[in-house]
Every structure is written in structure tokens, then in C-alpha cells.
């Protein structure tokens, strides 16, 4: 399989494998989420695999594609935990930002840049959750947390651990997915 | 119209796929991720330990203590019957289950166990581990169940001090600690006191140990607070026992409905 060989259009068989790999990798991320294997755990916090997937997907696609991926994976993560506050907001923002950053040429598509992007976006995703919880605290009477201070103190711990772990594990998921999508569509998708 | 038609011809497949993806994700969310939980259980089955492993760990000392507790409980039961108090509901155990997964997110404190409705685990059941209360079952699939830990900020449990009967409620703090808020202004409490669930907890049966008081903050408003060290080592727990329990009231009902229930 020479990646530089001209390919007219992916045929049905390639389409099938493309979807198989795409959906399979999402499923794999979902199944790894509840696991705490050695090296995937700092202060009881694990890497945000769905965020890594959204970044890998969005980085060579349009902002709309990124947002849709964020929405879909956010809903899936809600199904595994609790529906409110939703994870979809954070992942949509991550998808859009990852795609914009790359289009504006702020960042290249190498592994170090991707790790950096994931680090920043992990902070943003966790902040989105903390903002939602704060809004719930301010506007809703039965809030989960007893004070805004408690939310943001916990946010510091979660955001930093999650950002470090996610950025360290990002290449493990990003590299194979990128190679696969490149091989399937050498000119760059769409 | 023509441009719309042309756009549709070009993008129908993509739009369809996008809708399909979002609809699938929504469906999975509405079913509480049954499919994902079941797959996870199936895949991790080879790595799950068997109950015998736990029995091997139990040493003679624990057994001796258990015998003594049973003896004391029986005596207590007899004495209670003498003074004609309502019979204390003894906990029955549905099953022992291995913890196969942790929370899929950093903000919620949940665990996934490897037994579900097929082993008669149902929503509302409570889970205990070595050391005391762990949490309660919030969703089930045929072979897995999800437990909301008492360390989750959304867990609020009515508790009392075992020694002095001062009552309050605890709220999780996302770790192995929880905050106890007292109902009265001047509770009789000191560091080291044992906390157990109280009889007015709607979601949990009474007298299950929870933890010990570590520090007390008497300046908190409106009533004093205490920091409680939970007795269950949640971060390295491997097994939980599931006990059948039906909440005393429908916790999902609207507040107004609960009030009318009280009035009636």
C-alpha cells in the first residue's frame, strides 16, 4: 500500500473499512474510559480519551465536522455518567477550536503540537463543566456543590491531571487514526 | 429552490450520516449506555477475579470479629424486642459483585460492577464494602450496574453520631472525605466519633457505618460542620455486597408531590 499512489475515489470496500475503523475507535475510547490501568491514573483522574479522539478527528476537518463529532461523543459520554451537566458543550468547543487552530496555521500536525493542543483543550473542556456546575449553583436551588470555591478547587485538580494525562496519551490514539485517514484519502479529506 | 436541490444532491449522504451519528448517540444516552456497559463487561470478564479470592483474604481475626458482631446483634435484637421497639431491619445480601470499572468522567464519583438485573440487582439497592457504606445503584443493565458513591457531591445521606445520636446529613467531597452538616446548633460531637446512617434517611437503611469524624468546624453557618473520613477505602476497593432496598419515597417525584404525600 503505497500512500502516494493516486487513488480516484474510495470504493465501497474502502468506505466500509473507513467507517469500521472510525466507529471502532470511538467504541474503543468509550470502553477504555472506565478502566484505570497502571499509568492512566493521577489522583484518581484518568485521561479524557473522547477529547483525544475529537481532536484527532477535527484537526484535519472543518469546524462543523468538529462540532458534530463533539456533540455525538459528548452525548455518548453522558450515557456513561450522568446527563446533566452535559459533556457535549465542552467537546463541541474542543472540536471547533481544534479545527480552527489548524486552519489558521497556528499549529502544525505533528505529535508535539497535537499533545499541546490536547493539553489546552482538556483544560477548556473541564472548565466548561465547571462553568456549567457554577451556573447550576447560581441559578438552581439544589446545587451539587456547597460553594463556588469547592467547584473551582476541584476543577483545578481535575483539569490539571486530566490535561497532563490526556496530552501524554494523545499520540497513542492520534497517530494511528491520522495515518489511517491519510492513507484512505491522501489529498486530505474533503 | 434549485440551489437547495443541488445542495441536497451533493450533501444528502453527508447530512444523512450526520443525523444518523447524532441520533445513535442520543439513543445510547437515553438507554443509559446499556450496549457499552454490556460490551465492557464482556471484554473485561477474563480479568475479573472470582469471589473465592476475597474469601481467601479474610483472615481469622475478621471472622472472629464477625462472630462477635453477630452475637452482639442477636443480643441487641433480643433486648429491642424486650423494650418493644420496632424490629431493626437486618440487611439481606443479594449478591457479591466485583468492581469492573470506575467513573467514565472526572466529575462524577461512580463505579461499575459486574452484576446486573440477571443477578437480581435493581435500581435503589445499596452497596456496602469492607468498612461500611459504598453507595447506591442508580442504573442497571442485564450484566452490569452503576453505583453512585457516597463520595459524590450529589449524594446526600441522613446520618447520626453513633455515640450521642446527634443528627445531620453528609455530602460527598469527591474524595475519601465528606462534610457532615448538623441540624442542631450545638451538637454533641468530638473527633473520632463513628457516623452511621440514620433512620430518617430515605435512600438508605439505618445503622450502616459510614466513617469517623476527623475535624469539627463550629463556626460554620447556619449549623456546625464536621469533616468525615469515610471508612471504606473506595479508591482500592475491589468488591461490594449488594443489599436489596426500596427507597421509602419516590426520590424522582417532584418536590410538591412528596409534600402532599407527607400531608396525607
Automatic annotation (TrEMBL), chain A:
<feature type="transmembrane region" description="Helical">
    <location>
        <begin position="42"/>
        <end position="60"/>
    </location>
</feature>
<dbReference type="GO" id="GO:0005886">
    <property type="term" value="C:plasma membrane"/>
</dbReference>
<feature type="transmembrane region" description="Helical">
    <location>
        <begin position="80"/>
        <end position="99"/>
    </location>
</feature>
<dbReference type="Pfam" id="PF04093">
    <property type="entry name" value="MreD"/>
</dbReference>
<feature type="transmembrane region" description="Helical">
    <location>
        <begin position="111"/>
        <end position="138"/>
    </location>
</feature>
<keyword id="KW-1003">Cell membrane</keyword>
<keyword id="KW-0133">Cell shape</keyword>
<comment type="similarity">
    <text>Belongs to the MreD family.</text>
</comment>
<dbReference type="GO" id="GO:0008360">
    <property type="term" value="P:regulation of cell shape"/>
</dbReference>
<keyword id="KW-0812">Transmembrane</keyword>
<feature type="transmembrane region" description="Helical">
    <location>
        <begin position="158"/>
        <end position="177"/>
    </location>
</feature>
<protein>
    <submittedName>
        <fullName>Rod shape-determining protein MreD</fullName>
    </submittedName>
</protein>
<keyword id="KW-1133">Transmembrane helix</keyword>
<dbReference type="InterPro" id="IPR007227">
    <property type="entry name" value="Cell_shape_determining_MreD"/>
</dbReference>
<keyword id="KW-0472">Membrane</keyword>
<feature type="transmembrane region" description="Helical">
    <location>
        <begin position="16"/>
        <end position="35"/>
    </location>
</feature>
TrEMBL record, chain B:
<dbReference type="Pfam" id="PF04085">
    <property type="entry name" value="MreC"/>
</dbReference>
<protein>
    <recommendedName>
        <fullName>Cell shape-determining protein MreC</fullName>
    </recommendedName>
</protein>
<feature type="coiled-coil region">
    <location>
        <begin position="62"/>
        <end position="89"/>
    </location>
</feature>
<dbReference type="GO" id="GO:0008360">
    <property type="term" value="P:regulation of cell shape"/>
</dbReference>
<dbReference type="InterPro" id="IPR042175">
    <property type="entry name" value="Cell/Rod_MreC_2"/>
</dbReference>
<dbReference type="InterPro" id="IPR055342">
    <property type="entry name" value="MreC_beta-barrel_core"/>
</dbReference>
<keyword id="KW-0133">Cell shape</keyword>
<comment type="similarity">
    <text>Belongs to the MreC family.</text>
</comment>
<keyword id="KW-0175">Coiled coil</keyword>
<dbReference type="InterPro" id="IPR042177">
    <property type="entry name" value="Cell/Rod_1"/>
</dbReference>
<dbReference type="GO" id="GO:0005886">
    <property type="term" value="C:plasma membrane"/>
</dbReference>
<feature type="domain" description="Rod shape-determining protein MreC beta-barrel core">
    <location>
        <begin position="99"/>
        <end position="242"/>
    </location>
</feature>
<dbReference type="InterPro" id="IPR007221">
    <property type="entry name" value="MreC"/>
</dbReference>
